[in-house]
């Protein structure tokens, strides 16, 4: 029963953070969704004792670090050209 509950929590958190990532309207929410998915992958690998799931968590962690590099390589040079991150209010 505990494994089924843990699997359900992991899948629900994946859906929640993936929706944040996909529906982000600005770079801040995009980054929050990206980092939340990375932390979820790392934490979910710590919840399980099976070697297959631990290996999957390690792979997800490594792939996410490569993705972080690509994310920053794309967005950091563009920051001077972006006037705002969508955090202002129009009056």
Task: Give a structural overview.
The chain has 91 residues and is mostly helical. It has one domain (2-81). The protein has three helices and no strands. The N and C termini lie far apart (53 Å).
Q: How does the SSE layout of this entry go?
A:
Blueprint: H1 2-22, H2 27-47, H3 51-75
Helix pairs in contact: 1-2, 2-3
Name the shape in a single word. elongated
Amount of beta strand: under 5%
The helix content is over 70%
Query: What structural class should be given to the helix and strand makeup?
Result: mainly alpha
> How many distinct beta strands?
0
**Average pLDDT for all residues:** 75
- Element order, helices and strands? HHH
Main sheet? Answer: none
Features:
mainly alpha; 74% helix; 91 residues; single chain; elongated
Task: Briefly say what this structure is.
The chain has 91 residues and is an all-alpha fold.
């Amino acid at each position: 029963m505990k494994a089924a509950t843990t699997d359900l929590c992991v899948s629900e958190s994946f859906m929640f953070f993936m929706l944040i990532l996909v529906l982000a309207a600005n770079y801040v929410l995009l980054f929050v969704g990206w980092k939340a998915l990375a932390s979820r992958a790392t934490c979910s690998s710590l919840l399980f004792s099976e070697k297959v799931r631990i290996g999957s968590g390690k792979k997800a962690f490594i792939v996410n670090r490569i993705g972080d590099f690509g994310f920053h390589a794309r967005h950091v040079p563009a920051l001077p050209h972006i006037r705002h991150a969508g955090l202002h209010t129009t009056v």
